[in-house]
Amino acid sequence: MIYGIGVDITDIARIQAAQAKNAQFKARVLTAAELAIYEQLTPKRQAEYLTGRFSAKESFGKALGTGIGRVSLLDIEILDDELGKPVVTKNPFAGRALVSISHTDTLVMSEVILERGTD
């Protein structure tokens, strides 16, 4: 059964500006595993990746119904599976979390669906 759905749209330039202003921004958004992947990417792909993870974590907070603030960005980890599909690998929700991330040259859109009572 669906517990919650969250959607977010984030401007890539806004996240790039936040990272440029504060070098520690990425460490407040990305877990250690996500950060290790981020560091291997080209600058353009880093911007997309950081914005995508930020947006997806915002979507997660909305689906949970608490927003970010009651749940830390670092409480949620999203890694890609072997096919490149983003998968929520760590989160504070006692159930299943599904995520989708998409982007254009300027925007990232994400959606998270939280389910309870599924195996």
Automatic annotation (TrEMBL):
4'-phosphopantetheinyl transferase domain sequence ranges: 4-92
| Primary residence | cytoplasm
Instruction: Give the Pfam families listed for this entry.
Output: ACPS
Gene Ontology MF terms in the entry: holo-[acyl-carrier-protein] synthase activity; magnesium ion binding
Q: What class of enzyme is it?
A: transferase
Q: Which UniProt keywords apply?
A: Cytoplasm, Fatty acid biosynthesis, Fatty acid metabolism, Lipid biosynthesis, Lipid metabolism, Magnesium, Metal-binding, Transferase
Give the protein's cofactors.
Answer: Mg(2+)
Q: Which GO terms describe its biological process?
A: fatty acid biosynthetic process
What are the subcellular locations of this protein? Cytoplasm
| Catalytically driven reaction(s) | apo-[ACP] + CoA = holo-[ACP] + adenosine 3',5'-bisphosphate + H(+)
For this record, an example GO cellular component is: cytoplasm
Q: Sorted alphabetically, which InterPro entries does this protein's record hold?
A: 4-PPantetheinyl_Trfase_dom, 4-PPantetheinyl_Trfase_dom_sf, ACPS, Ppantetheine-prot_Trfase_dom
EC numbers for this chain: 2.7.8.7
Family to which the UniProt record says this protein belongs: Belongs to the P-Pant transferase superfamily. AcpS family.
| Function text | Transfers the 4'-phosphopantetheine moiety from coenzyme A to a Ser of acyl-carrier-protein.
Q: What is this protein called?
A: Holo-[acyl-carrier-protein] synthase
Q: Which organism is it from?
A: Loigolactobacillus coryniformis subsp. coryniformis KCTC 3167 = DSM 20001
Give the classification, highest ranks: Bacteria, Bacillati, Bacillota, Bacilli, Lactobacillales
What's the encoding gene here?
acpS
